[in-house]
């Protein structure tokens, strides 16, 4: 039992490590690929279509070779999930284009409380005071180190709302599907990735044209750009798999909270690799965020421990009640027999 617990803990750490490393890696690769100082590939939505196309290909090969099994999920569920996921991607890109960086960061931070509220509405999930407090600490910490200017406009606000709601719903649905259909993270991803890939590759170029006024077919592709596109797609496979894996093993809220570790890593690597400015405000915010993550981890473990003790007490009480009930029935039968004999 103890060995199983240790293996589970190692798997948990491995899943988080894969997600953080692949996410940070893909951000760095995309920065070089998409920035004006790099290769100027300013087609984020189409690039995401490439990501899902490669992920779908890996899933197809895995199923064909028997490394994974294709499990049934109703097509209508896959379709509406893919629509929500694609609206999340498009909404994020529109929010980044229409809003200031500060408001974009605030909208991303709002996902944690939104996920909490949606899980409470959809699944009646409750959170302890410690968890709520730690979530607030993380939000404040990341806000301090990332939010600068905050400018709001109607179109940008609407795009941010769509992005936050769709992203939150998508992440909650990943966990729900895995439980509902008893399907593994990679098996679920291999079912949703082809639909997302086709839709994003068809509509992505037009969305990107609307976002930046450039059409992908006019882009002069170079060998360096191709290398970074392939690197980005390879990292995206690990990023997508680890996202589904983490949400399946933990929860959408935990994924959001600990996912902000990526923000800390990106700021630190930006300072180390790209000479980005790292101010006292950034450092203070990162320290607050890390503290919040540590407190959150402790609060979740305390909540699990408390829940298991309560469940154990409930089970014990039920057994005792059953025993007393049996004794009561037997006593009643004996009395009935005695009354019958005295009457006779």
TrEMBL record:
It is found in: Membrane. Pfam families: TPT. Its main location: membrane. InterPro entries: EmrE-like, Sugar_P_trans_dom, TPT_transporter. Keywords: Membrane, Transmembrane, Transmembrane helix. It is a multi-pass membrane protein. The chain crosses the membrane at residues 41-66, 78-96, 133-150, 219-241, 253-274, 280-299. Residues 23-297 form the Sugar phosphate transporter domain. It comes from the Eukaryota. GO terms for cellular component: membrane. This is Sugar phosphate transporter domain-containing protein. It comes from Linum tenue.
């Amino acid at each position: 039992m103890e060995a199983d617990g240790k293996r589970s803990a190692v798997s948990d750490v491995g899943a988080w490590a894969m997600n953080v490393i692949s996410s940070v890696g893909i951000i760095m690769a995309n920065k070089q690929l998409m920035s004006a100082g790099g290769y100027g590939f300013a087609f984020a939505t189409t690039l995401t279509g490439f990501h899902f196309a490669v992920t779908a290909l890996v899933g197809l090969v895995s199923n064909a070779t028997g490394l994974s099994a294709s499990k049934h999920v109703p097509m209508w569920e896959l379709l509406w999930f893919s629509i929500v996921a694609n609206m999340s991607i498009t909404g994020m890109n529109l929010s980044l284009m229409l809003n200031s960086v500060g408001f974009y960061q605030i909208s991303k931070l709002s996902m944690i409380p939104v996920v909490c509220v949606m899980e409470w509405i959809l699944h009646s999930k409750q959170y302890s005071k410690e968890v709520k407090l730690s979530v607030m600490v993380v939000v404040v910490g990341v806000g301090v180190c990332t939010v600068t200017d905050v400018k709001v406009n109607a179109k940008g606000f609407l795009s941010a709302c769509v992005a936050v709601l769709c992203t939150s719903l998508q992440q909650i649905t990943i966990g729900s599907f895995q439980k509902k259909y008893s399907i593994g993270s990679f098996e679920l991803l291999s079912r949703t990735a082809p639909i997302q890939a086709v839709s994003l590759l068809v509509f992505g170029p037009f969305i990107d044209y609307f976002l930046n006024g450039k059409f992908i077919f006019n882009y002069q592709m170079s060998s360096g750009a191709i290398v970074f596109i392939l690197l980005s797609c390879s990292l995206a496979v690990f990023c997508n798999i680890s996202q589904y894996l983490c949400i399946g093993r933990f929860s959408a809220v935990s994924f959001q909270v600990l996912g902000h570790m990526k923000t800390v890593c990106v700021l630190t690597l930006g300072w180390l690799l790209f000479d980005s400015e790292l101010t006292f405000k950034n450092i203070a915010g990162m320290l607050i965020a890390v503290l919040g993550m540590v407190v959150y981890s402790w609060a979740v473990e305390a909540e699990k421990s408390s829940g298991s003790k309560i469940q154990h007490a409930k089970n014990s009480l039920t057994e005792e009640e059953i025993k007393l009930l049996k004794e009561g029935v037997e006593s009643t039968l004996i009395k009935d027999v005695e009354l019958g004999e005295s009457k006779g």
